[in-house]
Fold:
Amino acid sequence: MNKKIRYEEPKMPESLRKLMEIENDPPRKKKKKRPEEGPRSTKTAKKRPSQKSSANKTKKTRPSQERQERTKKSSSQPIKQPTRKVAKPATKQVSKQATKTRPRPNQKAQPTRNARPRPDQEGQRRPEKARPSQTRPNQKAIQSKKRPNKAVRPAKRRSRNFKAIPSTIIYGLTLLINFLVSGGDKGKYIKGDRREKLDKTFYRILPVAFVGLTILIMLAVLVHRDQATSIAENRELEQRPKFTISSFITGKYSDKQAVHMSDQFPNRAGFIKTKANLDRLMGKKEINGVYLGSDGYLMEGFKAENPNITKLKVDAINKFANSNKKLKVSMMLVPNKVDVYSHLMPKNAPVDSQTDYLKAVTSMLSNKVRMVDVEQTFNKLKNSEQLYYKTDHHWTTDGAFYAYTDFCKALNIEPTSQNNFNRSQASDSFRGSLYYKTGAEIGKPEDIYLYLTQDNAPVITKYYDTKKKVPSLYDSSKLSARDQYEVFTGGNHSQIKIRTSVETERKILVIKDSYANAMIPFLATSFSEISVVDMRYFTGSLSDVINNNDVTDVLFLYNVNTFNADSSILSINE
Structure:
């Protein structure tokens, strides 16, 4: 059998192997990446790869040529020869890279495409190398050309937020107050030298301004004239107390002087108005003791006093009835609109129930005092009739008429029918006490109506404090004053006596507050004489009034708020 011979390559002779080693190029080292000199377009890099290689080759041979030229120039005489400007390498990295990649002497330089002919060393001047910024197109310009032109949208107008104006004003005021009081944070916007000067002037002016303001207030207090009453608060104001050594030692003078300063402070109403407007801007529903109810109603709250004080007042009335057994004593406590129109009050308003208060007072009265209940009648009529003014704490003329009807029924007297009166409008611009008490002047003007008898029955009204006699129960001059409710009997007086043309032996004494002023014209149609006493201003004796006027009936007429707060009724037995 033939044996299988394994194939072996023939050995190459030594002469051929040396020729192969000479012709084969050694492996080239990887070139380091050249640092980017600026943005280059991708298109130019793809189109001209050979041009870059040829440029690199020309750079590699330049240093040796430059050395030869320098040696020739130094050896020969100075002859004018054409010079050429040699472009310096852009960076050190480029020069290092050129030295590393020089061609070997045995290696032939291959011709490249688009290679420029090398100029003659002596006859021609080598053109300057252009900067990269001149040869390379701007990348941003290329990108802007590529991008399609988008439609320019019109800029949206910012909506002005007017709700932020009050908060901005308040913030600015707080910054101003902070600067005036504590000097502010001047380090943020004032330099050191200027800051020291401002501090010196500020602390010099501050005590002078404080002393000047104090002197100005003292002069205003001395010049200011005291006012007798406050329409806005519906009360008398404290007058200047008399100085005595005993009152000064006991401390009563200083206490009265403090109250006087508070009541008679200059421009007191203006300060109250400013505070009220700030409270209203903050969304408060209670301003200076007045609640902002629904449907335009302004209402005073109610806080029941100590039951022991209420019992003292009721005991004084019981004692009066027991000491005047011949008299028919009645009592009418009129609930305020905070009770009748409680559904119009703000939610969760901290007020006590006047219904419970009326029940407590009724339970304390003796059998000789008849209690006239008008609360039930008002609760029936509150949705169909306007029983109270919206901006005042008083009841309307209609409310007074329905109360008069209940009183006559309780005394078994025939009340005068509503058809026997002419309902006449006296004013359409009435603004009540609560309108002024808020300080913010909240509410619309209202109407005041008068009930005039059809037969124009004559009456004579005598005012003891002013010593005047008038043939009417109304004072029309008050309609042009601030408190138009004073049109009824000319306002509050200490004592009034009214004589009517009614043929009856019944004469009544009314111990009252301002609610009775609107009801007296109706009583004038049922009694021959009416004596009116306001215990807040009366300084005489009730027993003298009763004996001198042959009184047969007595009516205590108060609204719940006044009876609860005022203690003048405790002096009825003096």
Remarks:
- The mean pLDDT is 78.
- Residues 54 and 115 are 6 Å apart (CA to CA).
